[in-house]
Amino acid sequence: MAVAPRRNSPGPVPWALAIAFLFLAGTADERTFGTVSDEQQMLFTSVSIATAGEIGIARGPLFTVHRPAGDAVAPYGMGQPLLQVLPAVLAGPMERSSGAGSSQTLFVLVEILVVLAAAFGASLAAGALGASQNARALALLAVAAASPLSPYVSSNYAEPLQAAAFSFTLACSALAACASGRRSLLLAAGAGLAAGVAVLTKSMNVAVAPFLLLPLLLDLRSDGAPSRPRLVMAATAGAFPPLALWLAFEIVRFGRPFASYGGQNFTTPLFEGLVNLLGNPAESLFLYFPFALLAFTAFAAIRGSGKRGTLLGVALATTASFALVAAWWSWDGGPGWGPRLLVPLVPVLAALAAPFFDRGPFARKLSIGLAALGFGINLPGVLQPDAAVSAYVMSMPPLAVSEAEASRYPPYFLERDAAGRPLVPRPFVAYRDLTLLPLRLHSFLLGARLQGNTSETVARIEARPPWAASRPDLAPAGPAKGGSASVDAHLRSPFAWPHLGMSLSKPRDERADAYNMAYLSGLADQVLRAVDVGERERAMRLSEGLYEISPSGYTAALHAEALRAAGRPQTLDSFLATLPPESQSSPSLGVVLALRARDAGDEALARDFLGRVATVFPRPGIRKAMASPLAAWPKNLHGMTGENLEERALAAPEFRRGDNPPK
Fold first, then answer.
1. H/E element, 102
2. Which pTM value belongs to this model?
3. 31: which of 131, 162, 304, 403 is 20 to 30 A away, CA to CA?
4. Which tens digits make up the pLDDT trace of 155-180?
5. Measuring CA to CA, which residue among 563, 464, 550 is closest to residue 511?
6. In angstroms, rounded to a whole number, what is the distance separating the alpha carbons of residues 197 and 191?
């Protein structure tokens, strides 16, 4: 009897990819996605593209670059905003059918897929270096589940996309040297495309990504491989589209390349930054990703294997990244788990580390042990989102510094005390205190949420941390600040296991407080922008849709403001008559009513409305308006309630000493 042939096993790599997906999907916290200013500006750009085919956002957040029309653009690379355009397009229909906040799942799913892509690219690059299937599978799992990349699936930072771009730049260029004919040229083009995406995502990568193309020039080629000039030409052709897009966006937004970081410079002494990045227990890359230590063994193990281009490329890319980040004013990356600005290096270091696994039983045990250690170190960052931890640290008193040290920081970050001394917000100097080690902070706050069965009990535990008696300067000075209301609610909520789809599993009422509404925040931003630039019809259409999806006092105020700005008093009256009492008490709606009275010339009524709002909503614009004549009032709701609306000069970052500010 004939025996049916056995089907080939898919091997360990697909299984590792499936396990990695299940881990990330089973621990992704959608509740705080899109709450930090950097995340918001990129997300709002995605929503702008999806709703209007434009890139403008409303003025307000730090770093935005103002435009003459009255709006602004984000200073960050366009890779991440373009990545999230598809979820932004799908979010509107999804939220109308499944409720406000439900589209969080779409945005987080994209981030999970990007982290998986970075991990798979590391596996491919490891294979090009001769790693076995088991070693490749371990490298994939190390990147996806045992590195500082895993917590980033719950945020809208650009680091995962940079990591994926670096990963595929190295993998495709190393594989191109191993291939022949047309396949080699396609891989070289793919390497160039990935390198271009890295630059599109962050301009600084123009000094890093090209090194990962060195395998095309220096690795030993297989028989039948195209000539090196042809490989370089293929890589150049692949890089051209994203680089052309990068240049176009730079010129359209800022007038020239590398000009979006005015006020931010390379002011940290290089040696100081390097020591911290290598050895500081708060930020060391090798603490958060111990598996990367095995990459150093690659230089001895692979030196004679014809992979000198791959080795040299990773070494130079790593050196360039460390040097640039170490000298940056915020070398620690500010908010974000681990050394955020170095996280994109994770997959390329994992690729070099993977072949060590195949060097015998001890090597296998050590490789698995370091990966397991990395998993344990990063798990608190997965289960306790950094956005909430950063808000907790922001509630601590700022640190007084000297004028010389203050010159390291962008002036718009600094505060002043009553004596005029410069104060640095605590998150930017947290790395100095072992008390505020991320592992300790995340574990403490996670433990508080595990112990507390109500928001009140969690808040009591968090208000009295274990170090409160010995370090009262590091105890919270009040409620968490620097985060949205959803972040504050999440910080004090009892622990609930995070997972992909959790935004879909909660009814609208339960999502209202503890869940950020990322898409709706972007839609609200577009309403404010439309009013600011005089696009009245668009403002009315967007605000009406926003109120339909999420009726609240604030969304009612936005629609009322759009109607007021459009000169529709009768429609505005009809809309106000339909509002429930809880919406009518919204401070933002009170500002709109004050502006409406101002428009009608009724000063007494306008001041009455604004005075009542000022007692509960003392924004700078409102306080200033209370002491000003009506003619000097801001023209709209955004001007009255917005913060950080000042202009910021465009400039390229400078390399200078922090204690030597420009004259």
1. none
2. 0.95
3. 162
4. 999 999 999 999 999 999 999 998 98
5. 550
6. 10
